[in-house]
Design a protein that fits this description.
The chain contains 3 helices and 22 strands. By secondary structure, the chain is mainly β. Strands 3, 4, 6, 7, 8, 9 and 10 form a 7-stranded antiparallel β-sheet that branches. A hairpin with a 2-residue loop joins strand 3 and strand 4.
């Protein structure tokens, strides 16, 4: 997916004590965002790419539990869809194919395009493990927070804001306004959750409240869906697909803020049954496609034709489409 707004997180690689029996790649999150990380292990001309590892602010998680020696390691991290505004990401120039939702993919480094299975390319950065069998990498924001503990507090503040609470600036300093908002949140959900559980609840509720910039499709059903996007703008008519959206996962069909009042979405099962469609016809293909002038001469150019459903953005910069037993459309980000 092109157009990802990459606010690069500064990365500091910190050597961990040598623990051969527990060799691992550890990722620490010293940001105010819940992060999802994908890692790539490169040996010769083959890479094994694995994702996504969820890392709450202030936490450290084993992304790979294995001896790191003898391979080149790379990482791409992105902010959770629960956070409002443009997506944040840390990465580099080495492109590897990934999926939304949990995945493990083996791929050749010479691959020029991702296969037609819903995967898409993202840029990964090389981790210099300095020949060690285990390594810890800490992910920072451009203006680093002083500690993991400060990141945890800043993360709570950000998630409270994503849940509609008006808090003070997002930093690692305790304050009465944050304490009051957090107490109110706990009371409203009658929860005495520990820190990990609290972050999970805050993230889950924020995903229902926040509308990220661009167009996002979430699969609330129990089976994987294939999703395609149609656009009509001054630059013409275009269609792109397919995104594979796993049950309970979301895919960013467009990451940049919306500039048109309408977007068009087609969702199908893997067997080809239409879950969401409509009267606006676009050209499509059976495999991954990006088609310009996508409403004329479909058959002549070897494409099929399918009806897309209109999603009314009404001037919003972001729109979320929930696909499941019923269609739910939200678009409140201005």
């Amino acid at each position: 997916m092109t157009g990802l707004c990459r606010i690069l997180l500064a990365a500091a690689a910190l050597a961990a004590p040598s623990m051969p029996a527990h060799a691992a790649l550890m990722l620490c999150n010293r940001t105010s965002y819940i992060l999802e990380a994908a890692t790539a292990a490169l040996a010769g001309n083959t890479a094994e790419v694995k994702g996504w590892t969820r890392i709450a602010p202030g936490d450290c998680v084993k992304a790979r539990q294995e001896n790191l020696q003898g391979r080149t390691w790379l990482v791409h991290a992105r902010s959770s869809i629960a956070h409002g505004g443009p997506a944040r990401a840390w990465g580099g120039k080495r492109l590897f194919c990934v999926h939304d939702g949990d995945f493990v993919l083996k791929q050749g480094v010479a691959r020029r395009a991702c296969p037609a299975d819903g995967s898409f390319p993202l840029g990964f950065a090389v981790i210099d493990i300095q020949g060690q069998s285990d390594w810890t990498m800490t992910l920072d924001e451009p203006r680093p927070l002083p500690s993991l503990e400060a990141a945890q507090l800043a993360g709570v503040k950000r998630l409270l804001r994503d849940n509609g609470y008006k808090t003070v600036p997002i930093d690692g300093q305790p304050d009465k306004a944050t304490g009051k908002a957090l107490a109110d949140f706990r009371k409203s959900f009658a929860t005495k959750a520990n820190n990990a559980e609290l972050f999970a609840i805050l993230e889950e509720r924020a995903r229902q409240h926040v509308t990220p910039a661009g167009l996002t499709a979430c699969n609330d059903g129990k089976a994987a869906l294939l999703v395609a996007l149609g656009q009509v703008s001054h630059g013409g008519k275009a269609a792109r697909g397919w995104w594979t959206v796993a049950p309970g996962a979301c895919a960013r069909l467009q990451t940049m803020p919306l500039t048109t009042d309408a977007m068009f979405v087609l969702a199908q099962t893997r067997e080809g049954a239409t879950v969401l469609g409509g009267p606006q016809a676009f050209c499509i293909a059976g495999t991954a496609f990006e088609i310009q002038d996508a409403q004329t001469r479909c058959a002549e150019r070897g494409y099929d034709r399918a009806g897309f459903a209109k999603m009314d953005a009404r001037g919003a910069a972001g729109l979320v489409v929930h696909l499941g037993k019923r269609l739910v459309q939200t678009g409140t980000l201005k």
